[in-house]
Amino acid sequence: MVHSLVTGGAGFIGSHLVEALLARGQHVVVLDDLSTGSLANLANIRKHPQLRFIHDSITNTSCLNELLDEADEVYHLAAVVGVRRVLADPEHTVAVNVEPVEAILRRLRARPKPLFLASTSEIYGKNPKTPLAEDDDFVFGPTTRNRWVYACSKAIDEYLALTQHQREGLPVVIGRFFNVAGPRQVGTYGMVLPRFVEQALAGGPLLVHDDGRQVRCFAHVVDVVGAIVKLMACPAAYGRAFNLGSDRPVTIRELAETVIRLVNPAAAIEHVAYEQAFPPGFEDIRYRVPDLTRVRQTIDYRLDHDLETIIRDVLAWKRNSV
Predict the structure, then answer these.
(1) DSSP bridge pairs for 269
(2) Do residues 7 and 78 make contact, with C-beta atoms less than 8 angstroms apart?
(3) Could you tell me the residue range of the domain that residue 125 belongs to?
């Protein structure tokens, strides 16, 4: 039986990944401090005989090392979540996003095993190219804008992991998430799709930042988790970064209109300036569309859920959670 360690396994993406691994017959250990994750996300599997939950911080190196030694493979998803949290505490962002990765890589240097490292589309920064491919440049803003701390911390993680692969052959796979959405995702930390659904259920208005012409692509968490599992089972993926998400663009205004149509046709849209919505240091990205060529050439990557399905699934989960 394969023993898998999932850090951040009580989070939105992590909990879906844990379910997928258990469904494959694996033994799964979840390490999560529940700062943004929730045991409710694991409710369907909490009593599974092959699941073990550890309530502790990823920064507890002693605990982390013990769990790394026991595991056959590692999925590192624990991180600071949400633009507002990053802007409010950049020092904490760096500490949580970088130091545990350094600790994981040190331990795996002596005991190599497959590692999935969760990264982000934020890593491309302000690069205006569309679609964005994995080898495109990172273009960050000035250090006076705290918004870029998260992207920089994830870039450091990638550099460290890829260097260890190049020098020592560590079997690492990096996944850059592009607006993954679905059940169990909340709008508390700034995620736009569940926030719109929550606002529509409450009667509105749906608060659209700026002019709403920002372009994003939304992928269902089930599709992305399926890709993670396939990549970890594919030796050709080791030592490479992969965009994970959808390449079907939609403006934020169109997203709000679709949510209104599916959730509450009586709700209205209200535009809000960035200065009202975010603390100082925020800077938005107008276009963010991934090039999925690499992942499609490496595994059988499928997007089985369209935007309306994602919204309906989030809506059903919200209603069942009340």
Answers:
(1) 206
(2) yes
(3) 3-182+219-247+287-304
* Dihedrals phi, psi of 114, to nearest 5 degrees: -55, 135
7 in Cβ contact with 63 (< 8 Å): no
Range with the poorest average pLDDT among 68-77, 89-98, 99-108, 178-187:
89-98
Q: What is the pLDDT of residues 104-131, one digit of tens each?
A: 999 999 999 999 999 999 999 999 999 9
Q: Out of 124, 150, 159, 274, which one is annotated catalytic?
A: 150
User: What count of other Cβ atoms lies within 10 Å of the Cβ of residue 222?
Assistant: 19
Domain presence at residue 164: yes
Contacts of 169 (CB under 8 A, 6+ apart): 112
150 an active-site residue?
Answer: yes
Decide if 117 is inside a domain: yes
**What is the full DSSP assignment across 297-318?**
HHS-------HHHHHHHHHHHH
What average pLDDT score do residues 210-227 get? 97
d(CA 246, CA 216): 9
- What mean pLDDT, rounded, does the chain reach? 95
318 within domain boundaries:
no
* Structural element, H or E, at residue 259: helix 252-263
Between the CA of residue 50 and those of 4, 21, 102, 158, 240, what are the distances in Å?
10, 10, 28, 31, 30
pTM (whole model) above 0.70: yes
Please give the sequence-ordered ranges of beta strands (E in DSSP) within the chain, or none if there are none.
3-7, 27-32, 51-55, 73-76, 115-120, 172-177, 180-181, 206-209, 215-217, 219-220, 240-244, 249-251, 269-272
Is residue 167 included in any domain, yes or no? yes
SS3 state of residue 175: strand
